[in-house]
Amino acid sequence: MDATRPYLTIRETAALLALSTRTSHRSSAEGTLKAYRVTGEQVIRIKRKDVDALLRPVDAAGQAPGPGGKQP
């Protein structure tokens, strides 16, 4: 997978996030992950920056920071 490509397929998104393609489709259908379709094409594209925005740092205990970067 080329890290410089601004758009990913559902399959590439799933592989990057270690999810199933079904979960990636569900996330796009629910609006958690914004997806785009090229006019006249069946393939869905997702902006790489939107995928990266889903990832959050965690501490050694596996806890993600809350709003404002504070630990829960």
Describe it for me?
The chain has 72 residues and is an alpha+beta fold. It has a domain of 49 residues. It contains 3 helices and 3 strands, in the order E-H-H-E-E-H. The protein has a 3-stranded antiparallel sheet. A hairpin with a 6-residue loop joins strand 2 and strand 3. Helix 1 crosses helix 2.
What's this entry about, in short?
The chain is of the alpha+beta class and 72 residues long.
Structural descriptors:
72 residues, alpha+beta, three-stranded antiparallel sheet, 3 helices, 3 strands, 35% helix
How many DSSP-defined strands? Answer: 3
Distance between the termini: 35 Å
* pLDDT averaged over residues: 84
Major sheet: 3 strands, antiparallel
- Low-pLDDT windows of residues: none
Strand order of the largest sheet: 1-3-2
Structural Rg:
14 Å
Sheet/helix structural class? alpha+beta
Q: What proportion of the residues is helical, as a percent range?
A: 25-40%
Run of helices and strands: EHHEEH
Basic shape: elongated
**Percentage beta strand:** 5-15%
Question: So how many helices?
Answer: 3
